Amino acid sequence: MQVAKTIAEMRELRRHLSGSVGLVPTMGYLHKGHLALVKQASAENSTVVVSIFVNPTQFGPSEDFRTYPRDLNRDLKLLEKEKTDIVFMPSDEEMYPPGFSSWVDVEKVTERLEGESRPGHFRGVATVCTKLFNIVQPNKAYFGQKDAQQAAVMKRMVADLNMNLKIVTVPTVRESDGLAMSSRNTYLNAEERQAATVLFRALSLARQLWQDGEKDADKIRQQMTLLIKKESLAQIDYVSITDADTLEELKTISCPALASLAVKIGKVRLIDNVILE
Ligand code: PAF
């Protein structure tokens, strides 16, 4: 496994690669969800590049950029085991040198849900991913279904800006009780960890109601909301049922739809979703 710490080093390694290159962009503190992305990238490409960069521009001023969990040594060991070919881990100064002033803004699909709750978040994600795509020049880039809106933003951006790569979405990896894997789960204490299962319980309820024939999206949102409100540590940010591609909120469910939610458990904000199809 080779490690590139600068853009020049990464470009030099890329110059010698032939065959397809799969990029897995991450912010490190890797878990099984990330490793599932690496496995799929490995199965589909000649070379796998994993980037580790905690991107400051996608965090709001009151968010957890400074305290975001980091453990580079552990990440490198895990990636070595997965037979990753190249790890790209640039510094903040390398990615955002003094005078940096160009941004990528994807409209519409970023306006609601995470975009509404976290102003500027997707501008930071779109900008850093554009930079990573320009530097690594992958044929495919891999994103987790847990961040469904992020994947939708990537697909829109790549199509709109004629970027020469395919965005691949990989299913969410869950703990045995359904909690979606996330680096932020480490913030939860034991009681909060237990309460956090309410996200998956609400999504499972949505899926069950829909499978039983309920097509009225409001009724499903109401039932999900009632279930979450029973959990005293949970505070709802949003409960949503949208078109899976446009992320427009639905009145009547037409396939495929995305049931998604953001819920604070204590101070920890968690997101999750399921596709109704
Ligand atoms: O999903 C993430 O970890 C980040 O948003 C990403 C895609 C690595 C961009 O910083």
Would you give an account of this structure?
- The chain is α/β, with parallel strands linked by helices.
- 37% of the residues lie in helices and 20% in strands.
- It is built from 10 helices and 9 strands.
- The protein has helices at residues 7-15, 32-44, 72-81, 92-95, 114-117, 121-136, 148-160, 190-195, 198-211, 217-229; strands at residues 2-4, 21-26, 47-52, 86-88, 140-144, 166-170, 234-243, 257-265, 268-276.
- The strands form 2 sheets. It has a 6-stranded parallel sheet with strand order 1-4-3-2-5-6, sandwiched between helices. Strands 7-8-9 form a 3-stranded antiparallel sheet.
- Helix 6 crosses helix 7 and helix 9 (198-211) runs antiparallel to helix 10.
- The termini are far apart.
- Bound molecules: pantoate.
- Pantoate (PAF) is lined by residues 25-27, 55, 58, 125, 128-129, 147, 150.
What's this model, at a glance?
Helices cover 37% and strands 20% of the residues. The protein has ten helices and nine strands.
Write the layout of secondary structure elements.
Blueprint: E1 2-4, H1 7-15, E2 21-26, H2 32-44, E3 47-52, H3 72-81, E4 86-88, H4 92-95, H5 114-117, H6 121-136, E5 140-144, H7 148-160, E6 166-170, H8 190-195, H9 198-211, H10 217-229, E7 234-243, E8 257-265, E9 268-276
Parallel strand pairs: 1-4, 2-3, 2-5, 3-4, 5-6
Antiparallel strand pairs: 7-8, 8-9
Task: Tell me the span between the first and last alpha carbons.
Answer: 39 Å
Small molecules bound: pantoate
Shape: globular
Mean pLDDT, all residues: 97
Rg for CA atoms: 19 Å
